[in-house]
Amino acid sequence: MKSLETRLSEWIFDTEKFNNKTIYLVGGCVRDIILNRKAQDIDLACTNARLFAYALAKEKHAVCVVMDKKPDVPCFRLINKKAPDNFIDITEIRGDSIESDLNQRDFTINALAIPLKSGKLDTTQIIDVVSGQTDISNKIIRMAYNESFTDDPLRMLRAFRFSAQLDFKIEQNTIDLIQKNVDKIQSVSSERILFELKILLQHQNIYPLIELMDQTELLAAVFPEIDSLKTCCQNNYHHTHVWGHSLETLKAYEQLISQLDTLFGTTCDQVRSYLNQNENMSMIKLACLFHDIAKPMTQKKNPETHHISFHRHDKLGKTEIEKICDRLRLSKRNAAFVCKLVEEHLHIRDLLSPATRRNTLLKSCRNLGETIIAIALLSIADKLATRGVKSQESDRMAYQEKAIAFIESYYNDIQPAICTKNLITGNHLIEIGIQPGPTMGKILRMIRWAQDEGKISTPEQALELAKELRNT
């Protein structure tokens, strides 16, 4: 991406519409300049923002889109038609001055501005009315004013997102006000909540922040399902209630991922690449938190032995997690991914049993694709977080070793095998007199099984096997 100065020059300074108009670079972009971070977004504030944005879009042959970034504050996003990743956001100055505007921003670290009227970016001219630079130096996240969360409740989630993103600490008064205003988060649209959650979950070592969100009750305000998980007791394989175990699963998953280079040998880069694809990392963490979501509704206690069981909670969990996915407006891809993780998080243990036939394992790998890697990682974390009196450390370590060995086998052996083309197709079977239908499908499956097991390796051998199967 081009430098900030170059992008500003192309969008603002090198334009007839600028003409020394009073425009300010504001918010996170200024914060990132102070932190020597690469600024991703360019946020500008000025008077008559609508007129300026549309006039600038016309001159630059750009697309102007009205965004809903803040309540009651229209944001005009100008997008370069030839490079959609190159865009700027322009908002109206709130109040009668830039100082008034900054006093209404979310956090002190974002309540900063640099005037651009000189036609250049002068980083020595930072306007700071709420000691934002001091809080940046001290790595503190502090609300800019007491009504911050009332004016926009999403800011409560943003506090945790910025904490993860910048490795800053949320100061206590801000935490107290979050706890006081948690119910207001329910007025925020699902799309805005999801945006913040995905950024938060994709960062490393967020377990302490999720735990803090839980303590403030903000997490339960977003996910009311948590309340029933907190009151759902478990059997002696567990040391805590379902929600406590779910949090421990997230913690174990993050610890596991932090040891990729150490634990996963030659396949660590492949696992890391997979986790960085799409939004896999954040979706797996969401599944960690809710993989046992159906346990409260499946809990059964034996009246004689007092043993607690949760029969089919993995399968019923798919239905329950679907409701969360729908409510958050997850994409179809992400919703299907999370649902599959919840549905399969126990089945993977059966697949890794020594008694499982190779064909059965290959069939599941073919059906699940690389998603089986995410399922295996979740199952390891789930096992490591199961630490009741009946759970042995040796068993947990043995399962981790077995699951990691499977992941290595998947990339080195299984994936290459299942990705090879079928030796023959239905057209070949038609040529030897086998008509389309259930019989043809069965023969093709059996030929594929033989191919996967290495019993046949050429089209000729496959046809010979087809003839044998036809006559049986």
Your description of this structure?
The protein has 472 residues and is of the alpha+beta class. It has four domains: 4-138, Beta Polymerase, domain 2; 140-222, Hydrophobic Seed Protein (Orthogonal Bundle), CATH 1.10.110; 223-419, no CATH class; 426-470, no CATH class. Helix content is 56%, strand content 10%. It is built from 26 helices and eleven strands. The strands form three sheets. It has a seven-stranded mixed sheet. A two-stranded parallel ribbon has the order 8-9. A two-stranded antiparallel ribbon has the order 10-11. Helix 9 (190-202) crosses helix 16 (280-290), helix 13 (242-257) crosses helix 22 and helix 25 crosses helix 26. It is globular and about 85 Å long.
Summarize the structure.
By secondary structure, the protein is α+β, with helices and mostly antiparallel strands. The chain has helices at residues 4-13, 28-34, 49-60, 98-102, 132-137, 148-151, 154-166, 172-181, 190-202, 207-216, 218-222, 226-230, 242-257, 260-263, 268-275, 280-290, 295-298, 313-328, 332-344, 347-351, 358-368, 371-384, 393-419, 426-431, 438-452, 459-470, and strands at 23-26, 43-46, 63-70, 73-79, 87-92, 112-115, 127-128, 140-141, 169-170, 299-301, 308-310.
